[in-house]
Specification:
It contains one helix and 39 strands. The chain has one helix at residues 204-209; strands at 7-13, 20-23, 30-34, 37-43, 50-55, 61-67, 73-80, 82-89, 94-101, 104-112, 118-128, 130-136, 142-148, 151-158, 163-164, 168-172, 174-180, 186-193, 196-203, 214-220, 226-234, 246-255, 258-267, 292-296, 299-307, 324-331, 346-350, 364-367, 382-387, 391-397, 415-419, 425-430, 440-445, 451-452, 458-460, 463-467, 477-482, 487-491, 494-498. A five-stranded mixed beta sheet has the order 2-27-26-25-24, with no helix packed on it. Strands 12, 13, 14, 15 and 16 form a five-stranded antiparallel beta sheet that branches. A five-stranded mixed beta sheet has the order 34-33-37-39-38, with no helix packed on it.
């Protein structure tokens, strides 16, 4: 069997805290829903519509939402099932959701019936199993992977309507992820095996016919501990790189809630080579970082959850001890870090603007791809969703706001929010109001994402008082708008988001 060589570079994400800094997020987040675990995000080319799939651990259904690039909800559907992943087909005219339900794998296919409305075609049974992941390349061909009884399986599929190809056993393993390269030649599968991470490529044509022809493979063995939860992404945009480029990320469990984040960068030519690059935060013990990866034009973006501990809290980083963030590193396809300077600090980009102690679950990251449309510097879009145990948030970057965060001086905190002891009143003080005629508006959202009607706020100078006496006990999100400024914070018993435009 002839093997196609793959150039390989391994990047071990760590760096000394004294040579690291974090650029704070300055974009506001859009709240999506409460009490959820997000597991999938896809972006429709050209339209910038975001399809996000998530489930509520307390319920027996998944939810898929479609939002435009402003975060406005376009369409929504709920179906029985858990642990969903989502992928777009073509120019936004269809989308598929892969999920598990009762120990079985299903794929639901949705089709665009009007400008913003998607209709479910069918709940399509594929096989028994758990932990599905799905991918559709920009040529419109789909692949699906899952595990069942310690064995990784895969199949190809077509849509319009959904039709699954033969179910093919790949190898013993767990927690698989999959992509189909835009060359349509190879399927890349990564999964856990023997406490390490396996990466393999198979011929797409053979998988379509029901067989698995191995093209190339590489095993990332454990050092002394376990590598977990691999995720893979490839270059979709022919304007910015080879369609054979792909990157795998995973976390390594060191024990005691200490983890490391790994990235392996593959280029589809030449023989296997390996190189380690110091590009992360060694002295900050993370708490289930669950890294994710996406190709964003000529860069590879890796995001993960981060906790700050004694070893890394310093003037060069700044977060308080015990705080948690969602961070992102920007890399070149060969594995070097974009913000890695020989004599300067390593720069990490903070994704979440949340001022409270963030505890993340799975983060999802996605960008557009090209195919028949050319995504370029003037019309690209990148999105990310992340959640704490009670709320999920979404944000995006595009040419108008090209990054999730910006460098430079931060505005001083423009608001102070005080909850009265009886929980009946919320007071908001806005500093630096430009005029007496400037208006503050407020929207309250409950833990299920539903808007709660509020009586108009009373104003005394720059202090606004909201009547909360009729609210049930629980967690709420308060959206406030004043002028052109933005801020996000939390108080006990209420979650709120203050946005100044």
């Amino acid at each position: 069997m002839k093997k196609i060589g793959i150039l390989f570079a391994a990047c071990f994400l760590f760096a000394a805290s004294g040579q690291s800094q974090i650029i704070n997020s300055t974009q506001p987040e859009t709240p999506v829903a409460g009490t959820v675990v997000n597991t999938g995000l896809a972006i429709a080319p050209f339209y910038h519509w975001q399809a996000m799939a998530y489930d509520d651990p307390s319920l027996s259904n998944y939810t898929i939402e479609w939002r435009d690039d402003t975060g406005i909800l376009l369409d929504v559907d709920n179906q029985a099932g858990h642990n969903p992943d989502v992928a777009y087909y073509g120019n936004a005219d269809a989308v598929v959701v892969a999920y598990e339900d009762g120990g079985n794998i299903f794929v639901d296919d949705y089709y665009l019936s009007s400008f913003v409305n998607y209709n479910l075609n069918a709940n399509n049974f594929v096989a028994s199993g758990i932990n599905p992941n799905v991918d559709i390349n920009s040529l419109g061909n789909g692949v699906l992977t899952w595990e069942d009884g310690g064995v990784v399986y895969a199949c190809t599929f077509n849509i319009g309507t959904f039709t699954a190809g033969p179910v093919v056993p790949i190898a013993g393993g767990t927690n698989p992820d999959i992509i189909l390269l835009d060359t349509d030649s190879e399927v890349i599968i990564t999964y856990e095996r023997s406490n390490g991470i396996m990466v393999e490529s198979y011929l797409h044509t053979d998988l379509q016919s029901g067989s698995a022809t191995l093209v190339n493979s590489h095993f990332m063995p454990p050092s002394v501990t376990m590598k977990q939860l691999p995720r893979v992404a490839s270059q979709r945009n022919s304007s910015f790189g080879s369609h054979k480029d792909f990157t795998v990320v995973a976390q390594e469990d060191l024990g005691g809630s200490n983890y490391l984040v790994w990235g392996w960068f593959f280029n589809g030519s030449g023989a296997f080579t390996a190189q380690k690059v110091n590009v992360g935060l060694t002295n900050c013990a993370t708490f289930e970082p669950k890294p994710v990866v996406a190709y964003e034009r000529d860069q590879v973006h890796i995001a993960w959850g981060q906790r700050y501990t004694n070893g890394c809290v310093s003037s060069s980083i700044g977060p308080v001890l015990g705080a948690r963030d969602v961070l992102m590193g920007e890399f070149y396809p060969a594995g070097s870090m974009v913000s890695q300077n020989i004599n300067g600090p390593t720069t990490y980009l903070q994704v979440n603007q949340l001022a409270f102690n963030f505890m993340n679950s799975a983060t999802s990251l996605s960008t557009e791809y090209d195919g028949n449309y050319l995504i370029n510097n003037s019309n690209y879009c990148e999105g990310i969703i992340f959640s704490d145990p009670g709320d999920m948030f979404w944000k995006k970057s595009d040419p108008a706001v090209p990054v999730f965060k910006t460098a430079g001086d931060e505005l001083e905190d423009p608001i102070t929010i005080v909850k009265a002891p009886d929980l009946g009143v919320i007071k908001v003080t806005v500093e630096g109001m430009e005029s007496d005629s400037e208006v503050a508006t407020f929207t309250l959202v409950d833990n299920s994402g539903r808007e709660i009607q509020l009586s108009p706020a009373t104003q005394s100078g720059n202090t606004f008082t909201l009547d909360a006496s009729s609210l049930s006990n629980g967690i709420y999100l308060l959206n406030c708008t004043v002028g052109t400024r933005t801020k996000t914070e939390r108080i006990a018993h209420f979650k709120y988001k203050c946005i100044y435009y």
